[in-house]
Design brief:
Blueprint (H helix, E strand, L loop, with lengths): L15 E3 L4 H10 L4 E5 L7 E6 H12 L5 H10 L13 E2 L4 H11 L3 E6 L2 E7 H9 L1
Parallel strand pairs: 1-2, 4-5
Antiparallel strand pairs: 2-3, 5-6
Length: 139
């Protein structure tokens, strides 16, 4: 199973949000679709991936807010209205659709990634999440 190529098990209809979508809306989408990461694309060009926002990123923001003393709820509401682009990591990992599941697992572990965008050359064609990899490894 670990020799399967990524295109055999990736989600080829990834959920994407534009970079101006609020953190509150991204959080709702992550919960609604029960996914660990959301692909964030350019407002003017949905083919241009700007980054990945994950549940781990969301929890880190919430943890940061918890250190703000008595203003926790006000700070949380302020962050919730900011665009997701304000909190994207500068770097994110990607794979090509002909890479193997073993490579995806190694990269996910090494980079602590929850969601990996999948490309065919320079075209975004899908996404692989940690649940996808667990399913194929132990199916």
């Amino acid at each position: 199973m670990l020799n399967l190529i990524v295109s055999d098990f990736m989600n080829d209809h990834p959920i994407k949000v534009k970079s101006d979508v609020s953190i509150r809306n991204v959080a709702h989408l992550l919960l609604r679709y029960r996914i660990n990461g959301m692909l964030v694309v350019n407002v003017e060009n949905e083919e241009q991936l700007l980054g990945v926002f994950t549940t781990a990123d969301l929890l880190a923001l919430m943890g940061d807010v918890m250190s703000r003393g008595a203003r926790k709820m006000q700070a949380l509401n302020e962050i919730a209205e900011k665009p997701v682009s304000a909190f994207l990591a500068k770097e994110f990992v990607v794979l090509q659709q002909n890479d193997t599941a073993a490579k995806a697992i190694a990269l996910m572990h090494k980079k602590k990634a929850l969601t990996i965008p999948i490309y065919d050359g320079d075209k975004l064609v899908g996404v692989v999440g940690r649940h996808d990899l667990i399913n194929i490894a132990f199916a």
